Every structure is written in C-alpha cells, then in structure tokens.
Amino acid sequence: MEREQYLAAIKPRMPEKRYIHTIGVMETAIALAQKYGEDVKKAETAAILHDIAKYADIEWMERIVRDEHLDSRLIGWGSELLHGPVGAYIAQSEFGITDEELLNAIRFHTTGRAGMSRLEKIIFVADMIEPNRRFDGVDRLRKKAQKNLDKAISACVRHTLAFLIDTKQPIYPLSIECYNDIMNREDSEG
Ligand code: GDP
Ligand code: FE
Ligand code: FE
C-alpha cells in the first residue's frame, strides 16, 4: 500500500489532533531514516500506523491480547500500554504487513525494549520529538536526534521514565528492561 492509502485508512480512526501528530511522526521518522541509513518506506509505514490502536476499545484490545497470545502482562495496564502491541496486530491482520521489523517498531513504540533495532529507535524517537510535541526538554532531545541515534534514544527513554516516576505512575517491565539495556551498553562503551 502507498502512503496516501495508509493515511486515508487511519484518518477516520482517530481525532484530528492525533492525525496531525501522526503526520509529524511520519515526517520526522523519514528524516531520521534518511540520516541513519534505514529503509525510508518502512519508517514511513511504521510511523503512519504506530498509533492506529490508540482509540480502540479497551475490552476489545484485552480480548486480542488473550486470543492472539500477546504479552499477558498487558492485561490491566490500560490503553496506553495496549495500543502498541494491538497496533502491530492490526497492521498484520488488517493491512497484511508481515515484516517483523516493521511490526516490532509499532509493537514497542511506547515502552521500547532491550535490544531495539535501528527502526524501532527511529520510531520511538520520532514519536517523542515530532514538531507538534511541546514539553520542557524537547528541544534538547531534537538536537540529540540530529547528532546520534543511540544518545537520542537514551535521552528519550530516560525522559519518559523520569516523567513516570515524577507523576507516580507504574513502569511497565519492558520499559525497565529497555532502560537497563541502554545503560549497560553505555557502560560497556565507557
Ligand atoms: P503517544 O501514543 O503518541 O501519546 O505516545 P506513546 O505511545 O509513546 O506513549 C503513550 C503514553 O504511555 C504516554 O503517556 C507515556 O508516558 C505512557 N507510558 C510509556 N511507558 C510507560 C510505562 O512504562 N508505564 C506507564 N504507566 N505508562 C507508560
Ligand atoms: Fe503511541
Ligand atoms: Fe504517537
């Protein structure tokens, strides 16, 4: 499928604001893919589809987790944690996407995970720094993304975890595994 077809497919499934965010993620992900030598078309498609499940019914999403044997820890965490894995399921079942790298970029875009691929990092970072995002520190993250993808993902993950701790929210196991993996790599790089 081409960009315009994907965009037409996602538009009715989300409010205008989320669609504008998605366009921002798409443009940012394409630029990062070009900069870091990733498949631009894959980055474009993953970005367009990354939040496709954001407004799906939570009970339906939990049913998908059970029926499709997705990560059972997801049950009870709410739609913020469900929409990545369920989004990957929709990409596969409705759009016929079979590329595991592309599906993983959608699946892990909220939490990250240990051993993220370059495409996963690009979608995670693009989601946080796209031009419509406004929060303290976003400009520093944008600058890092222009310089070094690994430093950018490290800063983005630390920013998200710091925010979750500040706001007293529980941290999903994959988010912690992602953080530990990044810190261990940075440590071994000196
Ligand atoms: P969005 O879908 O474009 O809004 O962005 P994300 O998919 O990256 O994040 C959705 C929400 O999930 C944000 O509010 C994050 O703060 C939140 N989130 C990310 N990781 C975790 C986590 O480990 N635990 C909890 N409770 N929330 C998380
Ligand atoms: Fe999301
Ligand atoms: Fe998003």
Task: Note the topology.
Blueprint: H1 3-10, H2 16-36, H3 40-49, H4 58-67, H5 79-93, H6 100-107, H7 118-129, H8 138-147, H9 149-166, H10 173-189
The structure holds guanosine-5'-diphosphate and fe (iii) ion (2 copies).
Could you provide a short overview of the structure?
The protein contains ten helices and no strands.
Explain what this protein looks like in three dimensions:
The protein has 10 helices and no strands. With 190 residues, it is mostly helical. The longest helix is centred in the first third of the chain and has 21 residues, at 16-36. The protein is globular. 36% of the residues are buried. The structure holds guanosine-5'-diphosphate and fe (iii) ion (FE) (2 copies). The site of one fe (iii) ion (FE) has 6 residues, from loops. One fe (iii) ion binds at residues 50-51, 54, 83, 109-110. GO terms for molecular function: bis(5'-nucleosyl)-tetraphosphatase (symmetrical) activity; metal ion binding; nucleotide binding. Keywords: Hydrolase, Iron, Metal-binding, Nucleotide-binding.
Task: Using brief descriptors, characterize the structure shown.
190 residues; 10 helices; iron; mainly alpha; globular; binds fe (iii) ion; Hypothetical protein af1432; binds guanosine-5'-diphosphate
